Amino acid sequence: MSLESVLFYFFAAISIVTSILVISSKNPVLSALSLILNFAGLAGVYLTLYAQFIAVVQVIVYAGAIMVLFLFVIMLIRPEAERNYFQERKSFKMLTIGIGVIVLGQLMFLIISGTSMFTSGGHSEQSLEVGTVERIGWELMTSYLLPFEAIGFLLLAASIGAMVLAKKKFE
Amino acid sequence: MLVEYIPLFLVIAFAIVFAFGTVFSSKIFGPQRPNPEKLSTYESGVQPVGTTHERMSVKYYLVAMLFIIFDLEVIFVYPWAVQFKKLYLDPSVGTTAFYAMLIFLVVFEIGYLYVYKKGGFKWD
After folding, report:
1. B122: closest CA of chain A, how far (Å)
2. So what's the pLDDT on residue A142?
3. What is the fold, at CATH topology level, of the domain defined by A1-83?
């Protein structure tokens, strides 16, 4: 096994173990902290898959910014009230299990139907280049100009939405 | 390709080893003589009341949310800035890249102005 595959399996193992910790722990703050480790492991997985820019963004945005938000949201809610949430709503629990099964089935289908496409070629020169920041900058400004502008509007909507939701004295 | 990132892995590995090492070495090498008085939350203070999960003000959520939004904006500016010279010198792109980023930032700054005018940056 090459160094890359060793690192890939190492980071993948970290991601899997920490994601199990996220859903199994009773304490929501502990779940959130496991999720930070999970994001760090995922960043390593991205790096070994030659998605360098995504790996860095994963650390900066997910492990940095989004986890701060997650922890704040956990501290905004009352955990002991949430604990009884599913005990009172039995049908809701079945619904969440159903959604989980559907998402799992979809992922399995994508993995099984998709693997033959990606494993046949191995590492080509193009796939080594595709994840660099230079390549992403180029593609963003040429082929994906319209989605890029749409992101601007999405961020605008997000900032206005956050204000409307969270500002108390809102006129 | 991946070899370039070995220094980064080394830094991260060193940080992890150092963080865990300093915490656990004090546990291993330090004397351990606990008693109930020492293990209480405030050894010579009032007894703590209630849970550790205090509900926090929603103002913190607003700060965190705005932080994410501005963080994402910078993430999108970064690849553009790296490639700007190449994009500008390319005849098929030229000034389009400049104006595309200008439109993106103007649209974004409308949100910034909205938050500013509504007092989103004030802590009241």
Report:
1. 10
2. 86
3. Four Helix Bundle (Hemerythrin (Met), subunit A) (1.20.120)
Residues of B in contact with A138 (CB under 8 A): 83, 86-87
Task: Say what the pTM is.
Answer: 0.75
Domain at B99, CATH number? 1.20.58.1610
Q: Which of A6, A157, A140, A141 is nearest to B93 (CA)?
A: A141
pLDDT score of B8 more than 70: yes
Place of tokens 């963003």: A140
Alpha carbons B112 and B95: distance in angstroms, whole number: 25
ipTM > 0.90? no
- Domains identified in chain B, total number: 1
Of A60, A133, A141, the CB nearest to B87: A141
Residues 97-116 (B) with a CB less than 8 A from some CB of A: 97, 100, 103-105, 107-108, 110-112, 114-115
Residue ranges covered by each domain of chain A: 1-83
